[in-house]
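Entry type: protein chain
Record version: 2
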Amino acid sequence: MRAIPAFALGGALLLAGCGAREPAPPPALARIEQARPADARLAQAYERSCLACHTRPESGAPLTGHAAAWAPRLAKGMPALQRSVAQGLGGMPAQGLCPDCTPADVEQLILFMSHAL
């Protein structure tokens, strides 16, 4: 009879670990550094404003293509992300160094950077 409770406890412990997953590792830096939005105008904005931080792990910014790092930010909603860009957040200056980016541009750049590579 003792085998059944031990078996049940072991099964419960195994199942408990199922929800605790390690975050996915970031994509290879070479892929991050080469990625660009398909739209040429957005690619230029990305290169001059986003690339310097979102391709460098040491910057603390979520890396382009690292969907797991972007997930909690996206969960806050696009309006909150756009406010963070407009006002600046942490080491990111206001407007994310893209003074000519429209809110639609910012949204497209966030969507580009947040999708898995």
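Comment: The domain at 26-114 is CATH 1.10.760.10 (Cytochrome Bc1 Complex; Chain D, domain 2).
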